[in-house]
Design brief:
Blueprint: E1 8-10, E2 24-25, E3 28-29, H1 34-39, H2 57-64, H3 67-71, E4 72-78, E5 88-93, E6 101-108, E7 113-121, H4 129-135, E8 159-161, H5 177-181, H6 206-215, E9 230-239, E10 250-261, E11 265-275, E12 282-293, H7 300-303
Antiparallel strand pairs: 1-5, 2-3, 4-7, 4-9, 5-6, 6-7, 8-10, 9-12, 10-11, 11-12
């Protein structure tokens, strides 16, 4: 007997940890600092968005197995901030047999939406959530913080990065992989024990691919005016020839993919391509919408 009843996988409630309270960029505290967040009208420093990505691999591995870690893509729009102590749960619609795309989302314990996303295996003919959102963007009427950026602008340097287990990931990410693994919501021996991994090496967790991709972002030298406080509004991580490995060298190239504006923010979308150490084989990609809060930029109202 067969049914066409839609089914949904549901993960357990988890309490993600705040690990960016000491984050610095541009010489100032970030929105993850409680005092800075409260100054901008938020009740406390939010947990970084990609922290919630760790909730999804158990569900998506159930759907697609090992292929998820090699060719998985999560494409998310962040909806509401989460502070430490709040509980979050991940959901995934079970796709039809053979399908390579599905809808996933995360909610707080009281049902407040945290993020909406598409999950898929690459290559996938259907557009991801962020491909759809970016295609619908209207050109900004006027930019101040981002007026010196242009779509198609590339980073100033080819960046070389790696992530070792005890490597401190810098002012943007003031912790190591091992410190993250001690607090991650969903752990796996694959993240630390190469002998347990199907690939014979420890793999970088999905949320830490974001850290790897942003770790050296200052080298791009995109001419963003500041100081201004920013946040992640949309984010897509796509594995092309994965997984990514702990202790492996990678090459990063960046490009401005889109510019946008809202009542409260100016946004620049960066496409970050991750290559193997030779720089010839692309292994992953991240699309990230950096939203700068207009209210955090001195003199913005007067300049407007």
């Amino acid at each position: 007997m067969s049914f066409d009843t839609p089914l949904t996988l549901r993960g357990p409630l988890r309490q993600p940890r705040q690990m960016l309270a000491d984050q610095e960029y541009g010489g100032h505290a970030s929105i993850h600092d409680d005092a800075m967040a409260e100054k901008l009208g938020f009740r406390a420093g939010p947990i970084e968005g990609p922290t919630h990505f760790s909730l999804f691999p158990p569900l998506l591995a159930k759907i697609w197995g090992q292929a998820w870690f090699e060719r998985g893509c999560i494409s998310a729009h962040y909806q509401n901030m989460v502070v430490e102590g709040e509980e979050v749960r991940a959901y995934a619609e079970v796709p039809a047999e053979g399908a390579t795309s599905t809808r996933v989302w995360a909610e707080k314990a009281d049902g407040t939406p945290v993020l909406e996303a598409s999950a898929s295996l690459t290559p996938n003919a259907a557009p991801t959530l962020l491909e759809t959102r970016m295609a619908a963007l209207r050109p900004p009427e006027k930019l101040l913080i981002l007026e010196d950026l242009a779509v198609g602008m590339t980073g100033a340097a080819e960046e070389r990065v790696r992530m070792d287990p005890d490597q401190h990931m810098g002012a943007l990410y003031p912790f190591s992989l091992n410190q993250k693994l001690s607090a991650i919501t969903e752990t796996s021996p694959w993240y630390s024990d190469g002998a347990a991994s199907p690939w014979g090496r420890a793999i970088i967790p999905l949320e830490m691919i974001s850290v790897l991709a942003e770790y050296s972002s200052h080298q791009a030298k995109f001419p963003v005016k500041g100081p201004a406080v920013g946040l992640f509004a949309d984010q897509e991580i796509r594995l092309i020839d994965g997984p990514l490995f702990v202790g492996e060298d990678y090459v990063i190239r960046r490009e401005i993919a889109a510019l946008a504006e809202s009542k409260r923010t100016e946004s620049y979308w960066v496409r970050t391509r991750i290559f193997d150490a030779s720089g010839t084989r692309q292994v992953a990609e991240m699309l990230l919408n950096h939203a700068s809060l207009k209210a955090s930029y001195a003199g913005y109202a007067e300049a407007g």
